[in-house]
Task: structure prediction
Amino acid sequence: MRMIKKKSSLIERLQDEVVEWIINDNKQEVTWDELKNFSEKKFEEKEILKKEFQEKMEIKTN
Result:
């Protein structure tokens, strides 16, 4: 139970802090929300591509 508290505490700290990322060799500060939105968008794009691929494979097999 103690480990779970430590993990959530760490997650909370990360969410509250500004995350620094190096993007295209330029240092940019990225907030947690921006990072989360970016990740969600990439996940959605991946799901769309996966669905399109599955549809193409179904067409080929039929």
